[in-house]
Write a structure and sequence with these properties.
Helix content is 28%, strand content 24%. By secondary structure, it is of the alpha+beta class. The chain contains three helices and twelve strands, in the order H-H-H-E-E-E-E-E-E-E-E-E-E-E-E. The longest helix is centred in the N-terminal third of the chain and has 29 residues, at 21-49. Strands 1, 2, 3, 4, 9, 10, 11 and 12 form an eight-stranded antiparallel β-sheet that branches. The protein has a four-stranded antiparallel β-sheet with strand order 7-6-5-8, with no helix packed on it. The radius of gyration is 42 Å and the shape is elongated. The chain has two domains: 3-49; 83-224, Umud Fragment, subunit A (Ribbon).
Amino acid sequence: MDKNYNEYYDLCNNSTSGFDYERFILEEEAAGNNSRKNKIVKVKKQKAEEKPRGSGSEIYEWLQCLVSALLICVLVFAFFVRIIGIMGYSMMPTFHDGDSVIISNIFYEPQQGDVIVLRKLSFQPEPIIKRVIAVEGQTVNIDFEQGIVYVDDVPLDEPYIAEPTLTPIDFDGKITVPENCVFVMGDNRNGSTDSRSNDVGCVDTRYIMGKVLIRILPLNKFGKVE
């Protein structure tokens, strides 16, 4: 009889001859236990390697976010928008002394009715805020008896002014706004030094710092400026 067959026969009959069945079972159990132990050790090792991030790491990430946000704000306010504080009363009742606004000059082309901030050093070093009454090529005339402003011979509807325009200052007749210039006036018509004055005159568009977009102070008037 074949030897392998004898060993198989002994195994089936739980015989101790030729093949140590009990030892085989013990070895298999030991191998299984070792395998399970190895898996447990491996899992514990992985968990140990996955250490939770400490508070120092979280603080560093918050600082990174804060620095990034500040950098973005600096870039935005350096190249796209600016915050301007208003001084004086020439734009009452639309704006008051101490108000703050956000302005922008990106891709801006002056339009009639826009509220702008400009700087004309020959008049004063501080920025001034005015409303565009007419742009290049348009004509401006003012009836100081009736207090009516005409642009291209059409009377303006001005619900924003404090009172009718009664003060000529240096304005002495109909004018045509030169190329690349604007004619500006304050909404407080009789308390504003503007294009009616020889000190200001028609303003070169290069002096325009930007159009007023948003009023940020006072907070109860926060919002877009129409």
